[in-house]
Write a structure and sequence with these properties.
The protein is an alpha/beta fold. Helices cover 51% and strands 11% of the residues. The chain has a five-stranded parallel sheet with strand order 3-2-1-4-7, with helices on both faces. A two-stranded antiparallel sheet has the order 5-6. The protein is elongated and about 65 Å long.
């Protein structure tokens, strides 16, 4: 796949989930840089910035992808040769993949401890971290999950399919039915697109309504997310624009 094809898939939402978007972007940059015809370190720097901009323009509200791309650019800034810079891109990409996997494993371990036998859990949207957490809990406990359909792109259908494949008792409901079923839940677990300096969570459309319904019904509400989704642009109280 080319850099542009990955960018098109991110823009069209063919690639979903903040983590999946960031990982796809990093792999695309690594492949593009390794295949590009670069004559000197200046060419490398220009091409890396161009590639980063193409990907960042696809979804400006993805802080995780933005953080990853900026990190790679910063790490290669002081390199004196193309070979060394390419090596840094390769090592940084592989290192981030390792960090991502370890973060998911840690979140899954901690989150699974919150789940008990016989619970009923609601989730909203499609979060690979949440899916892995529920799979981990399923190894030692039996519980049920209600997935909202999550329109307009129906991310919840993909979540439901993944959970059913894992052998988890799963029920899919319409988004508008979440408030009706919330009183039967023991907890809600969702993922996040971004975390802000004010302590806010940015997630899929409809997540705030479910959070309010959970508070109204005294149902525990958890967000499973690694800290590299922190949006640095909110550090000075600047709002995240969607």
């Amino acid at each position: 796949m080319t850099l542009q094809s990955v960018a098109d898939d991110i823009r069209s939402m063919k690639i979903q989930g903040a983590t999946n978007v960031a990982l796809a972007a990093l792999k695309a940059i690594r492949q593009h840089i390794n295949q590009a015809d670069l004559k000197n370190i200046e060419d490398f720097s220009d091409e890396l910035h161009k590639a980063g901009k193409i990907l960042l323009d696809t979804r400006p509200t993805e802080p995780m992808m933005r953080n990853c791309i900026r990190y790679i650019i910063d790490k290669t800034r002081r390199e004196g040769s193309i070979e060394d810079a390419k090596l840094i891109v390769d090592k940084t990409t592989k290192g981030f993949l390792d960090i991502t996997n370890k973060a998911r494993e840690r979140i899954s371990y901690i989150g699974s401890k919150r789940i008990e036998d016989g619970m009923t859990i609601m989730t909203h949207g499609r979060s690979t971290t949440v899916i892995q957490l529920l799979r981990e809990a399923m190894k030692t406990k039996k519980f049920g999950v209600f997935c909202t359909e999550t329109r307009l792109l129906h991310e919840g259908r993909k979540t439901a399919a993944a959970l059913l494949k894992a052998g988890i008792d799963t029920t899919m409901i319409l988004d508008c039915a979440a408030r009706y079923f919330i009183k039967e839940m023991n907890m809600v677990i969702i993922g996040a697109d971004a975390l802000t300096a004010e302590g806010n969570v940015i997630s899929g459309v409809g997540a705030s309504s479910i959070a309010l319904a959970a508070e109204e019904s005294r149902v525990r509400f958890y967000v499973a997310s690694p800290l590299y989704k922190f949006d640095t642009e909110t550090a000075h109280s600047e709002p995240l624009k969607r």
